[in-house]
Design brief:
Blueprint: E1 2-13, E2 17-21, E3 31-41, E4 46-50, E5 56-62, E6 65-77, H1 115-125, H2 132-145, E7 147-148, H3 159-165, E8 167-168, H4 170-183, E9 188-195, E10 204-211, E11 214-218, E12 229-235, E13 244-247, E14 250-262
């Protein structure tokens, strides 16, 4: 299926501000990039690099004044990968590939080693067969028990905060899911990008887990994980996949996002 996405970030910059961005899509299996654009107005030179997770990144210095960053993509993507029958099995920690091991460790926003997280993981999925059943139980529990609402969490909100307050947005849902999975020794990572089935269009976050020797997508915001997605970046948590990271005096004034399927 062909899918397109577009994001427009508008900033007021009060002093020359260095930024790094993750706004260009990944090139990977199941996602063929047909066309893309990345533009900064007023035009400034920028460099590009690939981070340790394979995400394409951009780096520049924003000038003083109104700055608009626009990114566009058209891609051939597959539907969210279905879970096979029988479902994929749990992979013992001793059998995990080396490159997956850091996805079972605690991280800044996903404090999977805390007692409170462990108690919640045990309550939700402690008596289930390790692997897919536990992950889906966690995803379903979050969907049913956490209220989705803008404006009540911020960049400092962690998985533990959400476990206590039980209200937030996709970023928060994903952090809690990751922390609970990792507590059960199931590797989990945060992924961000475009999803075609959002009630309120925005850049979206979901989580992938490593079971059965492969990565599978789970989305706690949705009643059922489905739809088409364009992946921009993935990492341990939001600290690794921030769309824009700034080192200076600039204020985001607006963000406009579009995502849709193409005929």
């Amino acid at each position: 299926m062909k899918m397109k996405g577009r994001s427009i970030f508008t900033y007021d910059v009060y002093a020359p501000t260095t930024v790094t961005t993750m706004l260009r899509p990944r090139r990977q299996e199941g996602q063929s990039i047909m066309q893309e654009g990345f533009n900064i107005e007023p035009q400034v030179p920028f460099s590009e690099y690939i981070d340790i997770y394979g995400n394409p990144c951009q780096r520049t210095i924003l000038p003083v004044g109104r700055v608009v960053i626009t990114t566009e993509v058209q891609a051939q993507v597959n539907a969210t990968k279905a879970i096979p029958s029988p479902p994929p099995a749990y992979v013992l920690v001793g059998d995990l590939p080396d490159e997956v091991m850091h996805y079972i460790l605690p991280s800044r926003y996903c404090q999977s080693d805390l007692h409170e997280i462990n108690m919640l993981a045990m309550e939700i999925a402690g008596n289930m067969v390790p692997g897919y059943a536990q992950v889906e139980a966690i995803r379903t529990w979050i969907h049913k028990n956490i209220t989705y609402q803008y404006g009540v969490t911020d960049a400092s909100t962690t998985a533990l905060d959400l476990a206590r307050n039980r209200i937030g947005v996709c970023r928060d849902f994903t952090h809690l899911a990751i922390a609970l999975c990792r507590n059960l020794c199931i590797p989990a990572r945060m992924t961000v990008g475009y999803l075609d089935r959002l009630k309120v269009m925005d850049l979206h976050a979901w989580f992938d887990v490593y079971i059965g020797g492969d990565w599978y997508t789970f989305d706690a915001v949705q009643e059922k994980t489905e739809g088409y997605r364009i992946e921009i970046a993935h990492g341990r948590d939001a600290a690794d996949v921030a769309m824009v990271t700034q080192y200076g005096n600039a204020t985001l004034q607006s963000l406009h996002v579009e995502a849709s399927l193409m005929e």
